[in-house]
Amino acid sequence: MKNFILYLLFQFFYFLVLLLPDKLRYYLGKLFGKFAYYITPERREIVYNNMKKSFKDKYSEEKLKKMTKEVYYNTGLILVEFILLKKLNKDNLKDFIEIKGEENLKKAYEKNNGVIIYGAHFGNWELMGSAISLLGYPLNAIAQEQENSYFNKKINEIRRENAAYLTENLKDLEWLETPVVPEDREHVFHQYTVKVKNRDKFLDHLKENEIGYGIHYPIPAYNQPLYEKMGYGDYNYPVTEKLCEEVVSLPVHPALSDEDLEEIVEVVKKFK
Fold first, then answer.
1. Each residue of 74-90: pLDDT tens digit?
2. Strands of 247-250's sheet, edge to edge?
3. What are the percentages of helix, strand and coil residues in the chain, rounded to 5?
Protein backbone atom coordinates (compact mmCIF):
# COMPACT_ATOMS: atom_id res chain seq x y z
CA MET A 1 0.00 0.00 0.00
CA LYS A 2 2.83 2.38 0.90
CA ASN A 3 4.52 1.81 -2.47
CA PHE A 4 1.27 2.50 -4.30
CA ILE A 5 0.73 5.78 -2.39
CA LEU A 6 4.29 6.87 -3.20
CA TYR A 7 3.68 6.05 -6.84
CA LEU A 8 0.48 8.14 -6.93
CA LEU A 9 2.31 11.02 -5.25
CA PHE A 10 5.06 10.77 -7.85
CA GLN A 11 2.53 10.85 -10.68
CA PHE A 12 0.99 14.02 -9.21
CA PHE A 13 4.44 15.51 -8.67
CA TYR A 14 5.38 14.60 -12.27
CA PHE A 15 2.36 16.49 -13.60
CA LEU A 16 3.13 19.59 -11.51
CA VAL A 17 6.79 19.70 -12.54
CA LEU A 18 5.86 19.78 -16.23
CA LEU A 19 3.21 22.42 -15.58
CA LEU A 20 5.09 24.92 -13.36
CA PRO A 21 7.74 27.52 -14.30
CA ASP A 22 11.40 26.92 -13.33
CA LYS A 23 11.40 28.92 -10.08
CA LEU A 24 8.36 27.13 -8.70
CA ARG A 25 9.82 23.78 -9.77
CA TYR A 26 12.79 24.49 -7.52
CA TYR A 27 10.56 25.09 -4.48
CA LEU A 28 8.41 22.09 -5.36
CA GLY A 29 11.52 19.87 -5.45
CA LYS A 30 12.62 21.04 -2.00
CA LEU A 31 9.08 20.58 -0.66
CA PHE A 32 8.98 17.03 -2.01
CA GLY A 33 12.36 16.32 -0.39
CA LYS A 34 11.12 17.66 2.93
CA PHE A 35 7.98 15.53 2.70
CA ALA A 36 10.06 12.42 1.89
CA TYR A 37 12.30 13.16 4.88
CA TYR A 38 9.40 12.91 7.30
CA ILE A 39 7.61 9.88 5.82
CA THR A 40 10.68 7.60 5.43
CA PRO A 41 12.13 7.25 8.95
CA GLU A 42 14.02 4.02 8.17
CA ARG A 43 15.68 5.51 5.09
CA ARG A 44 16.36 8.72 7.00
CA GLU A 45 18.18 6.73 9.67
CA ILE A 46 20.33 5.05 7.00
CA VAL A 47 21.31 8.43 5.54
CA TYR A 48 22.18 9.78 8.98
CA ASN A 49 24.29 6.73 9.88
CA ASN A 50 26.14 6.93 6.56
CA MET A 51 26.91 10.57 7.28
CA LYS A 52 28.15 9.65 10.75
CA LYS A 53 30.43 6.93 9.38
CA SER A 54 31.78 9.19 6.66
CA PHE A 55 32.55 12.24 8.79
CA LYS A 56 33.21 10.48 12.10
CA ASP A 57 33.82 13.20 14.72
CA LYS A 58 34.13 16.07 12.27
CA TYR A 59 30.57 17.35 12.77
CA SER A 60 28.16 17.53 15.67
CA GLU A 61 24.95 15.49 15.83
CA GLU A 62 22.95 18.64 15.08
CA LYS A 63 25.06 19.37 12.01
CA LEU A 64 24.72 15.79 10.73
CA LYS A 65 20.94 15.94 11.09
CA LYS A 66 20.89 19.20 9.16
CA MET A 67 23.03 17.62 6.41
CA THR A 68 20.67 14.64 6.29
CA LYS A 69 17.77 17.02 5.60
CA GLU A 70 19.82 18.71 2.88
CA VAL A 71 20.41 15.32 1.23
CA TYR A 72 16.64 14.88 1.02
CA TYR A 73 16.16 18.41 -0.35
CA ASN A 74 18.78 17.70 -3.00
CA THR A 75 17.09 14.40 -3.90
CA GLY A 76 13.85 16.32 -4.48
CA LEU A 77 15.68 18.66 -6.87
CA ILE A 78 17.27 15.68 -8.64
CA LEU A 79 13.79 14.23 -9.11
CA VAL A 80 12.66 17.48 -10.76
CA GLU A 81 15.66 17.33 -13.10
CA PHE A 82 14.92 13.67 -13.86
CA ILE A 83 11.36 14.50 -14.92
CA LEU A 84 12.66 17.34 -17.11
CA LEU A 85 15.03 14.99 -18.94
CA LYS A 86 12.31 14.54 -21.56
CA LYS A 87 12.79 18.20 -22.48
CA LEU A 88 16.56 17.80 -22.86
CA ASN A 89 18.08 17.39 -26.31
CA LYS A 90 21.46 17.86 -27.97
CA ASP A 91 20.53 21.40 -29.09
CA ASN A 92 19.79 22.73 -25.58
CA LEU A 93 22.08 20.39 -23.60
CA LYS A 94 24.79 22.96 -22.88
CA ASP A 95 22.22 25.55 -21.83
CA PHE A 96 21.42 23.36 -18.82
CA ILE A 97 24.68 21.55 -18.13
CA GLU A 98 28.28 22.68 -17.80
CA ILE A 99 30.47 19.88 -19.13
CA LYS A 100 34.01 19.59 -17.77
CA GLY A 101 36.64 17.05 -18.77
CA GLU A 102 34.93 15.72 -21.90
CA GLU A 103 38.35 15.63 -23.57
CA ASN A 104 39.33 12.81 -21.18
CA LEU A 105 36.29 10.75 -22.15
CA LYS A 106 36.90 11.43 -25.84
CA LYS A 107 40.55 10.43 -25.59
CA ALA A 108 39.68 7.16 -23.85
CA TYR A 109 36.81 6.40 -26.24
CA GLU A 110 39.01 6.93 -29.31
CA LYS A 111 41.25 4.05 -28.20
CA ASN A 112 38.37 1.80 -29.32
CA ASN A 113 38.58 -0.47 -26.28
CA GLY A 114 35.40 0.76 -24.62
CA VAL A 115 35.18 2.94 -21.51
CA ILE A 116 33.78 2.03 -18.09
CA ILE A 117 32.34 4.95 -16.12
CA TYR A 118 31.76 4.04 -12.50
CA GLY A 119 29.35 6.40 -10.77
CA ALA A 120 27.49 6.58 -7.49
CA HIS A 121 24.56 8.44 -5.96
CA PHE A 122 26.54 11.67 -6.06
CA GLY A 123 25.07 14.65 -7.88
CA ASN A 124 22.56 13.91 -10.60
CA TRP A 125 23.74 10.59 -12.01
CA GLU A 126 20.64 10.28 -14.22
CA LEU A 127 21.42 13.61 -15.85
CA MET A 128 25.03 12.56 -16.39
CA GLY A 129 23.98 9.44 -18.27
CA SER A 130 21.61 11.37 -20.54
CA ALA A 131 24.26 14.02 -21.21
CA ILE A 132 26.85 11.43 -22.24
CA SER A 133 24.35 9.85 -24.60
CA LEU A 134 23.37 13.21 -26.12
CA LEU A 135 27.04 14.02 -26.68
CA GLY A 136 27.05 11.08 -29.09
CA TYR A 137 28.73 8.34 -27.07
CA PRO A 138 27.07 4.89 -27.28
CA LEU A 139 26.06 4.07 -23.73
CA ASN A 140 24.89 1.06 -21.75
CA ALA A 141 24.05 1.34 -18.08
CA ILE A 142 23.95 -1.13 -15.21
CA ALA A 143 21.55 -0.14 -12.45
CA GLN A 144 19.76 -1.73 -9.54
CA GLU A 145 16.10 -2.60 -9.98
CA GLN A 146 13.68 -0.28 -8.23
CA GLU A 147 12.30 -1.66 -4.98
CA ASN A 148 8.94 -0.05 -5.70
CA SER A 149 7.16 -2.32 -8.21
CA TYR A 150 4.90 0.52 -9.34
CA PHE A 151 7.88 2.63 -10.41
CA ASN A 152 9.34 -0.37 -12.22
CA LYS A 153 6.04 -0.86 -13.99
CA LYS A 154 5.97 2.80 -15.07
CA ILE A 155 9.57 2.70 -16.37
CA ASN A 156 8.85 -0.43 -18.39
CA GLU A 157 5.64 1.11 -19.69
CA ILE A 158 7.60 4.11 -21.04
CA ARG A 159 10.13 1.77 -22.66
CA ARG A 160 7.33 -0.16 -24.35
CA GLU A 161 5.75 3.08 -25.61
CA ASN A 162 9.08 4.24 -27.04
CA ALA A 163 9.65 0.85 -28.67
CA ALA A 164 6.13 0.86 -30.15
CA TYR A 165 6.77 4.28 -31.69
CA LEU A 166 10.04 3.11 -33.25
CA THR A 167 8.49 -0.09 -34.58
CA GLU A 168 5.47 1.70 -36.05
CA ASN A 169 7.69 4.16 -37.91
CA LEU A 170 10.47 1.80 -39.00
CA LYS A 171 8.63 -1.45 -39.77
CA ASP A 172 8.21 -0.71 -43.50
CA LEU A 173 11.92 -0.24 -44.25
CA GLU A 174 13.02 -3.10 -46.49
CA TRP A 175 16.62 -3.14 -45.25
CA LEU A 176 15.73 -3.13 -41.53
CA GLU A 177 13.91 -5.70 -39.39
CA THR A 178 12.20 -4.52 -36.19
CA PRO A 179 11.63 -6.67 -33.07
CA VAL A 180 8.57 -8.91 -32.98
CA VAL A 181 6.57 -9.32 -29.76
CA PRO A 182 3.97 -12.15 -29.64
CA GLU A 183 0.45 -10.94 -28.84
CA ASP A 184 0.31 -12.91 -25.58
CA ARG A 185 3.63 -11.50 -24.31
CA GLU A 186 5.04 -8.24 -22.97
CA HIS A 187 8.58 -7.02 -23.59
CA VAL A 188 10.39 -4.62 -21.24
CA PHE A 189 12.74 -3.52 -24.06
CA HIS A 190 15.90 -3.31 -22.04
CA GLN A 191 17.32 -2.96 -25.56
CA TYR A 192 15.56 -2.10 -28.81
CA THR A 193 17.50 -4.28 -31.24
CA VAL A 194 16.97 -4.31 -34.99
CA LYS A 195 18.62 -6.26 -37.83
CA VAL A 196 20.14 -4.28 -40.68
CA LYS A 197 21.97 -4.89 -43.92
CA ASN A 198 25.37 -3.23 -44.35
CA ARG A 199 25.73 -2.57 -40.62
CA ASP A 200 29.14 -0.85 -40.73
CA LYS A 201 27.87 1.79 -43.13
CA PHE A 202 24.71 2.21 -41.04
CA LEU A 203 26.75 2.72 -37.85
CA ASP A 204 28.80 5.41 -39.61
CA HIS A 205 25.53 7.09 -40.56
CA LEU A 206 24.34 7.03 -36.92
CA LYS A 207 27.66 8.45 -35.71
CA GLU A 208 27.59 11.27 -38.27
CA ASN A 209 24.12 12.21 -37.04
CA GLU A 210 24.99 11.82 -33.34
CA ILE A 211 22.54 9.00 -32.66
CA GLY A 212 23.71 6.63 -29.93
CA TYR A 213 23.67 2.89 -30.54
CA GLY A 214 24.89 -0.42 -29.14
CA ILE A 215 25.66 -3.87 -30.53
CA HIS A 216 24.19 -6.69 -28.47
CA TYR A 217 26.34 -8.59 -29.10
CA PRO A 218 29.24 -8.45 -31.59
CA ILE A 219 30.90 -11.72 -30.50
CA PRO A 220 29.04 -15.02 -29.92
CA ALA A 221 29.22 -16.27 -26.34
CA TYR A 222 31.11 -19.41 -27.37
CA ASN A 223 33.87 -17.24 -28.90
CA GLN A 224 34.45 -15.28 -25.70
CA PRO A 225 37.86 -16.09 -24.14
CA LEU A 226 36.38 -17.83 -21.08
CA TYR A 227 34.18 -20.16 -23.14
CA GLU A 228 37.01 -20.87 -25.57
CA LYS A 229 39.12 -22.02 -22.61
CA MET A 230 36.23 -24.28 -21.61
CA GLY A 231 36.33 -25.92 -25.02
CA TYR A 232 33.40 -24.24 -26.77
CA GLY A 233 35.49 -22.26 -29.28
CA ASP A 234 35.30 -24.91 -32.00
CA TYR A 235 31.51 -24.82 -32.18
CA ASN A 236 29.91 -23.38 -35.30
CA TYR A 237 26.47 -21.76 -35.19
CA PRO A 238 25.97 -19.91 -38.50
CA VAL A 239 22.67 -18.24 -37.52
CA THR A 240 24.21 -16.84 -34.33
CA GLU A 241 27.26 -15.57 -36.21
CA LYS A 242 25.10 -13.96 -38.88
CA LEU A 243 23.03 -12.18 -36.23
CA CYS A 244 26.18 -10.86 -34.56
CA GLU A 245 27.01 -9.17 -37.87
CA GLU A 246 23.57 -7.60 -38.32
CA VAL A 247 22.16 -6.49 -34.94
CA VAL A 248 22.10 -2.87 -33.76
CA SER A 249 20.37 -1.48 -30.66
CA LEU A 250 18.76 1.95 -30.98
CA PRO A 251 17.98 4.28 -28.04
CA VAL A 252 14.80 3.34 -26.18
CA HIS A 253 15.42 4.52 -22.60
CA PRO A 254 12.66 6.27 -20.58
CA ALA A 255 14.33 9.70 -20.71
CA LEU A 256 13.86 10.02 -24.49
CA SER A 257 11.67 12.96 -25.43
CA ASP A 258 9.17 12.94 -28.29
CA GLU A 259 11.65 15.08 -30.25
CA ASP A 260 14.41 12.50 -29.62
CA LEU A 261 12.24 9.68 -30.95
CA GLU A 262 11.27 11.71 -34.02
CA GLU A 263 14.95 12.48 -34.70
CA ILE A 264 15.97 8.81 -34.38
CA VAL A 265 13.29 7.80 -36.90
CA GLU A 266 14.21 10.64 -39.26
CA VAL A 267 17.92 9.77 -39.21
CA VAL A 268 17.32 6.03 -39.70
CA LYS A 269 14.97 6.66 -42.63
CA LYS A 270 17.57 8.84 -44.35
CA PHE A 271 20.02 5.95 -44.57
CA LYS A 272 20.50 4.68 -48.10
1. 989 988 888 888 778 77
2. 176-177, 192-196, 247-250
3. 60, 5, 35
